[in-house]
Amino acid sequence: MNETMPKKLATRCIHAGELADAHGSPHTPIYNTTTFAFPSTAAILDVVEGRTEGSLYTRYGLNPSIKALEAKLASLEGAEAALVFASGMAAESALFLTHGREGIVCIGDAYGGTLELIGQQLPQLGIPTHLMLGNELDRLDALLAGGARLVFFETPSNPTLELFDIAAIAEQAHAHGALLAVDNTFASPVNQQPLALGADLVVHSATKYLGGHSDITAGALMGSKELLDAVWPWRKNLGQTPAPETAALLARSLRTLVVRVHHQNASALAIARAMEAHPRVARVLYPGLESFPGHALAKQQMAGFGGMLTIEIDGGGEAAAAAVDRFKLFAIAASLGGVESLATQPVTTTHHGLTPEERSRRGISDGMVRLSVGLEDSQDLIDDLTQALR
Ligand SMILES: *Cc1c(COP(=O)(O)O)cnc(C)c1O
Fold this sequence. Notes:
Layout: H1 9-15, H2 41-48, H3 64-76, E1 81-85, H4 88-99, E2 104-107, H5 112-121, E3 129-132, H6 140-145, E4 150-154, H7 166-175, E5 179-183, H8 188-191, E6 201-205, E7 219-223, H9 225-238, H10 244-254, H11 257-276, E8 281-285, H12 295-301, E9 308-313, H13 316-326, E10 331-332, E11 342-344, H14 356-361, E12 368-372, H15 378-388
Parallel strand pairs: 2-3, 2-4, 4-5, 5-6, 10-11
Antiparallel strand pairs: 1-7, 6-7, 8-9, 9-12, 11-12
The protein binds pyridoxal-5'-phosphate.
């Protein structure tokens, strides 16, 4: 991107990181290549020994489709550097294995795979990990004083849309010499910029809003060059790099990120208001509603309130399942962030593995339905919910 070019987010989505080619393609071509040829032994040694940058081998991430995508991803989060991964969990595992080895504190509800990795698998490698709920933040100082060096959370979190104060927790972590990593999957860089608020690292399941069309599995990690340089050999040798086709498809999707997310923000707010007024809905959890407990914090640290909301249907789990089964537009599916609207009952999917007591401790009820609002007409979506709640 030309240095004199305006640098608002929508502009960066389109132009950041794009490589010019000899034929005048307006975007980076797909370098569907595993390896790259050099004119001489001296030239290949220059790249292998790090004296010059260049394409070398795709699993290393040294492929123009991947490097161009990473420059765009870094730009979107206001980061010095980015690494792209074959999935969100690949990004998280590389992050934890690089920067979490001395101890990880995970705050609040997180993605199921994240909770399993932190709670059950990393301890098998001897990594000390701690899971705490949002109402147990008073434990954080003691855990940091005890040696934990990486704090991690999602905000908004799944499925209750609980928010955490990025700036305040970053300050607390830094006071103990620890790092803060934020999973920004639900908000997307359009609605929230964790690095600008003081976080050290941002992780994404690019499978969700960044990909945006339910057709790519990918992940991303953004932060300073120093922190990401340490992650790079883990990605390389764990073999977590995505294929160039996936990288190019993700770059294609990012060019429309701002328009997609703005539309999803507006539709989700309209749906949240309609559901709040519906007699069969006991509660609507959406950061953009004045009634939402985290609304003040949302206004402070988010530029938009996102496309995810959770409604609690009167009558419990069976009534909620009956309503979900009547949906005609919302598909019954896990995942989120795509162009098509999806609905899932946390008790049947994302939080199915927890005991009823554990779910209730986390404020997750059987009547909850999590909605991922797509790009359909918002009135059509409201009509679908209304007919299902009849
Ligand atoms: C989906 C998801 C992940 C895992 O991402 P994958 O791309 O499925 O590996 C991590 N965090 C959040 C918040 C997610 O929604």
